[in-house]
């Protein structure tokens, strides 16, 4: 497009590319730039959205730093997977855990039974001053 005598003349070259090559008014360009700068997101917002890297490294080193972090995470995960118990060991742990719970249950039942058998008689409680002579805990 060319300006001839105050008129815009569109060249065939401009039609084929579909690009408007007319000069933008300086005021419009400045207003557009100011508008975009006012709505520009804060750096912390960009970091929160993972658009900017949250790092103090030089921009030339940021990609290498990010790759290093990913490798560290990969290595850590591999180590944890190597330490992970196999299926048979997990089944054995579950079985032993079940037996442990069952044993605890039986031990509590035995302890309760023992305490009930050795419970003091009402006469002993009256003698020790815990019960009044006219109180009988066996009556309902």
Describe this structure in words.
The protein is mainly alpha-helical and 140 residues long. Among the domains are: 47-84; 97-133. Helix content is 62%, strand content 4%. It contains 6 helices and 2 strands, in the order E-E-H-H-H-H-H-H. The protein has helices at residues 12-17, 26-38, 43-48, 59-83, 87-117, 122-127, and strands at 2-4, 7-9. The chain has a two-stranded antiparallel ribbon with strand order 1-2. Strand 1 and strand 2 form a beta hairpin. The chain is elongated. It starts with a strand and ends in a 13-residue tail after the last helix.
Short description:
With 140 residues, the chain is mainly alpha-helical. The protein has helices at 12-17, 26-38, 43-48, 59-83, 87-117, 122-127; strands spanning 2-4, 7-9.
Query: Which shape, going by the Cα principal axes?
Result: elongated
| Helical content band | 55-70%
Estimated share of beta-strand residues: under 5%
Q: pLDDT below 50 for ≥5 consecutive residues: which ranges?
A: none
The tally of helices reads 6
Rg, nearest Å: 42 Å
**Within the largest sheet, what's the order of strands?**
1-2
Q: What structural class do you assign from the helix and strand content? A: mainly alpha
List how many beta strands DSSP finds. 2
Query: Average pLDDT, to the nearest integer?
Result: 82
Query: N-to-C SSE series?
Result: EEHHHHHH
Q: How would a textbook summarize the main sheet?
A: 2 strands, antiparallel
Quote the distance from N terminus to C terminus.
110 Å
Keywords: Nucleus, Repeat
Main location: nucleus
Protein name: Putative rpel repeat protein
Subcellular location: Nucleus
């Amino acid at each position: 497009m060319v300006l001839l005598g105050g008129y815009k003349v569109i060249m065939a070259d401009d039609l084929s590319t579909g690009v408007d090559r007319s000069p933008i008014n300086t005021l419009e360009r400045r207003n557009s730039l100011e508008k975009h700068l006012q709505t520009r997101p804060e750096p912390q917002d960009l970091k929160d959205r993972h658009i900017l890297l949250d790092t103090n490294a030089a921009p030339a080193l940021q990609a290498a730093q990010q790759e290093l972090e990913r490798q560290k995470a990969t290595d850590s995960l591999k180590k944890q997977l190597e330490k992970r118990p196999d299926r048979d060991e997990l089944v054995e742990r579950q079985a032993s855990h079940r037996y442990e719970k069952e044993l605890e249950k039986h031990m509590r039942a035995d302890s309760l039974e023992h305490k009930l058998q050795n419970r003091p008689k009402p006469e002993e409680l009256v003698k020790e001053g815990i019960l009044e002579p006219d109180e009988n805990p066996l009556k309902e």
